[in-house]
Specification:
The structure is a single chain. By secondary structure, this protein is mainly β. The protein contains 8 helices and 52 strands. The strands form 12 sheets. The chain has a 22-stranded antiparallel β-barrel. A 5-stranded mixed β-sheet has the order 8-13-14-11-12. β46 (829-830) and β47 (838-839) form a beta hairpin. The protein starts with 42 loop residues before the first strand and ends with a strand.
């Protein structure tokens, strides 16, 4: 029997008058007055497979011969667990509603009425011989909600045979999360090293993850602009590669952003106009304001969101400003048709990219002792306030189109006496507020993201869907130690899918989705760094910048910027895919996915410093097959073990999502990956304890823009648990144990690394005026056979508790209050060499509290509650030479009004 989720359905059986409402717009009282009230103690043989909750309720009403009414709440987008055995209707319904934030009561006619747990959470309702206790999950962590973001099929987290997490807007608010770096407090495997101080893409399982918007992959964001969690209805994190439905993603994982919309909490759509605004102020000039509005429109509605930040920062010379505009429409058009449109505009400035501290020594980390002094050999001859390339050449010379200010080990690199500090040499205590950021630096970004979906739900339960996606970014940046970039990229993707249920006799069923897609991507990536006019350590952070340590990049000739690299890249792909979840005997399921992609790629490099083919378009084509296979068994005790194997083939892309000339010509633009994962999901103690544990091994081949090829192997254990101890007290825990290794690059191969003078065998004070590097990590004997990436901690553990009061009277008005507190432990980190810096382990505590009186909420957050000193390692080329000092104790106060 099929029940449309888009409308109201009444189902009657011949044996009993049975009413089940899958989506109720209003309370319904249609009861057979002459029907006798069945005893609540009557035992029934129940057999209900895991499925959409609305259909499971219908099945229960038929099998138990009882009336079940969903009054003023929606059962949509929720999943049921498997039910099998002898039990009362009350016991069966209670198990179906575990973890849904729904409960039920039994009225005088014997009907079971499903209601919101939030509305009755402080009550224990006695109806005849039925006792119903409202269970309320304040952070929405006991998740029975259905999502198609992980597999492409509507499944709950319990049914998803992968390590995955969902973070609700309530959790984001109560934990004080503002960007992806904060997710480490609630999501295993999500520790992210500092990518020049800008929280862009998330790191998952030790490698860079993809960011998705409504199930579509966004353009790469490696520190170009910050993520913004305030505009999210919720975010989802999948560890491991994406479903074949959504494209061949990175094996590390993905973050899926779901924007705020007019969808209702206890109804399909909001049924009245509502909204609110909030204002946040905090430490070091934090200023943020946001507002949202929901307008019902027929069977659907519009939602609008605006957020503006204009803040100062703990770090000097960084003044983050952003504007986020978002508009959404969702609605039903009748005859099973529905649609959704999301538009998001984001612009940001003032969040300067910074590697953090320079001139890093172990003495600086352990004791705060910084080596001072300046090298005065570079002179600003034209009085511009910055050093041009020609002025650097005059002091240090150049060779082969590259500056001698950078010395590379493989090419006989050595110290130059002119690199010595010759003014103000000594030591001092360095403020954690002083980092590599200058008034001359900038980082300006603008993005536009759009999604549109149209779908038709058929009477047989199948769904035909058409979806389209656009992502457009612009970013211009300058770091006055010598790096500059200008990025433009645009991606378009279209996708059509058809999903359908199938039954094979009584004991085998399948949910399947098939489809096809097309994606087109164009990118311009202009950068200056290859010529070597970069000097991180010239600046004395204790005294601030001078003309002698500000490098004007890129080189300008006759008013034209002469970029080292001017990559113009284009690619498009066509794909077909399928995913099927086959269930046998209700409890055993096999999830199989297959995807084929066909790529055409083009690229050209018109830069001034090109090591390889220049000013020539190169083209290539290739195809790739990705697959995944999982098996799970849902036991009667709420424990679901699973195993997953996957081999995705993803596109090897650059900072802007393009494919470089080197990877095109070498035919290395498709990278193989592998995942092996075994785990268990659990929902026990009457659904009050929910979570999962997983052990994984994964491999990913990577190729950088210079054509360096490396393989990364990771293994680890992850545990996430959410316990609703009472309807007022809950605990959330996340544990990560991991190790990420770069496989043997071989002699003369591997990644580019900048090194500290000590690692070159030099006295730092005699060498801070220059830059020292190894062109390929494999040129160092200790790295040639592989090495551990210690920028990722091997242990991360978080534990948080939340207490929410019962409603109470405050000055004649009903009020509620809550408190959240906890801490995150991060083990020791560092670089990749034996001589790398050792960054000590640390524990960061947080606390938050709120009071809500009628429609007004006042909340406060304190980060780094005990003012712990800590450091975050830098990523990529600066992992050996820079660290980001951590933030001190910080507070925020938020005033919010809802109507």
């Amino acid at each position: 029997m099929i029940i449309h989720r888009s409308g109201l359905k009444a189902v009657f059986t011949s044996s009993a008058a049975v009413l089940a409402l899958s989506v109720a717009a209003a309370p319904v009282a249609v009861l057979a007055q002459t029907q006798s009230i069945p005893s609540a103690a009557q035992i029934h043989q129940i057999r209900i497979e895991a499925q959409a909750l609305d259909r499971a309720v219908v099945a229960l009403s038929e099998q138990a011969g009882v009336v079940i009414v969903a009054a003023g709440v929606s059962l949509e987008n929720r999943r049921s667990t498997v039910l099998s055995g002898a039990m009362t209707a009350q016991e069966a319904l209670a198990r179906l509603l575990e973890g849904t934030n729904l409960t039920f009561r039994r009225d005088s006619n014997g009907a079971y009425v499903i209601v919101s747990a939030a509305d009755v959470r402080a009550e224990a309702v006695q109806v005849g011989d039925v006792l119903v206790t409202a269970r309320y999950d304040p952070l929405s962590r006991l998740q029975k909600g259905a999502t198609d973001s992980f597999t492409g099929l509507d499944r709950s987290l319990l049914e998803t045979p992968r390590s995955a997490s969902r973070v609700s807007a309530d959790t984001i608010a109560r934990y004080g999360m503002e960007n992806v770096d904060d997710l480490v407090a609630a999501v295993p495997g999500a520790f992210t090293a500092s990518f020049f101080g800008v929280p862009g893409n998330l790191n998952v399982r030790g490698t860079l993850a993809d960011t998705y918007f409504q199930g579509f992959k966004r353009i790469e964001n490696r520190g170009s602009f910050s993520s913004n969690l305030g505009a999210a209805a919720y975010v989802e994190v999948l560890r491991g590669p994406s479903s074949p439905i959504y494209g061949p993603g990175k094996v590390g994982g993905l973050l899926n952003f779901v924007p705020k919309s007019a969808r209702g909490v206890n109804a399909r759509y909001a049924d009245e106009m509502g909204g609110g605004f909030n204002v946040t102020v905090g430490s070091y000039g934090r200023r943020n304001a946001a507002a949202d509005l929901v307008i019902p429109a027929g069977d659907g509605g519009f939602a609008f969101y605006v957020e503006r930040e204009d803040s100062d920062s703990y770090y000097r010379n960084i003044h983050p400003k952003h504007l986020n505009l978002q508009a959404t429409y969702v609605g039903d058009f009748g005859r099973g048709w529905s649609g959704e449109v999301n538009l998001m505009h984001f612009e940001e400035s003032g969040r300067i990219q910074s590697p953090g501290w320079n001139r890093v020594t172990q003495n600086l980390i352990d004791n705060g002792v910084y080596i001072t002094g300046r090298d005065t050999d570079l002179v600003d001859l034209d009085g511009s306030g910055m050093i041009e390339y020609g002025e650097i050449d005059a002091a240090f010379g150049a060779w082969g189109g590259t500056s001698n200010i950078r010395q590379i080990m493989e090419y006989g690199g050595k110290n130059n006496p002119k690199f010595a500090l010759d003014e103000g040499v000594g030591t001092t205590r360095l403020s954690h507020r002083n980092i590599m950021a200058d008034d001359a630096d900038y980082n300006n970004s603008r993005t536009f993201t759009a999604y549109a979906g149209l779908q038709k739900e058929m009477a047989n339960g199948s769904v035909l869907a058409f979806k389209a996606f656009v992502d457009d970014i612009e970013n211009q940046k300058l770091n006055s130690f010598g790096f500059a970039a200008d990025y433009e990229a645009r991606a378009f993707e279209g996708r059509v899918t058809y999903s359908f249920p199938t039954r094979f006799g009584q004991h085998i069923s399948a949910d399947t989705i098939v489809g096809a897609g097309y994606r087109d991507h164009t990118a311009k990536q202009y950068e200056s760094f290859l010529s070597g006019y970069i000097a991180l350590n010239r600046r004395d952070l204790s005294r601030g910048s001078t003309a002698g340590d500000r490098i004007a990049a890129p080189f300008v000739k006759n008013g034209v910027k002469m970029w080292d690299s001017r990559h113009e890249m284009e690619w498009d792909s066509r794909s077909v895919f399928a995913m099927s979840d086959i269930t046998m005997f209700d409890r055993f399921s096999i999830l199989a996915g297959l995807r084929w992609d066909d790529y055409d790629v083009r690229a050209i490099n018109k830069g001034e410093t090109v090591f390889g083919l220049k000013d020539t378009w190169v083209e290539n084509s290739n195809d790739a097959v990705s697959w995944s296979l999982s098996a799970r068994y849902e036991t009667p005790w709420g424990v679901t073990p699973y195993v997953t194997f996957a081999e995705p083939r993803s596109l090897e892309s650059t900072q802007t999502g393009g494919v470089s000339v080197g990877t095109v010509t070498s035919n290395l633009f498709i990278s193989p990956s592998e995942l092996k994962e075994v785990g268990v999901k659990f929902s026990v103690l009457d659904g009050s304890l929910f979570g999962g544990a997983a052990y994984y091994e994964q491999f990913r081949r990577q190729t950088d823009i210079m054509g360096n090829v490396s393989g990364t192997t990771s293994d680890g254990f992850e545990l996430e648990a959410n316990w609703l101890a009472t309807d007022q007290l809950s605990f959330n825990m996340a544990l990560t144990l991991q190790e990420t290794r770069v496989d043997a690059p071989g002699k003369g191969k591997g990644e580019y690394l900048e090194l500290r003078p000590e690692q070159f065998g030099l006295d730092p004070a005699l060498a801070y005026g220059g830059t020292f590097a190894v062109n390929n990590a494999g040129s160092l004997a200790e790295l040639a056979n592989g090495y551990v990436v210690r920028t990722m901690p091997d242990t991360v553990f978080s534990l948080f508790g939340t207490y929410t009061t019962r409603p109470f009277d405050l000055m004649g008005s009903q009020a509620t209050a809550g408190f959240t507190a906890g801490a995150t432990y991060v083990s020791e980190t560092g670089g990749v060499l034996k001589s790398s810096l050792q960054l000590p382990a640390y524990t960061l505590a947080k606390a938050a509290a709120y009071v809500k009186v009628r429609d007004v909420t006042v909340s406060a957050n304190i980060d780094n509650l005990f003012d712990e000193t800590y450091f975050t390692p830098s990523a990529e080329v600066y992992k050996e030479v820079a660290v980001m000092p951590g933030l001190p104790r910080m507070f925020r106060i938020n005033l919010a009004y809802r109507f």
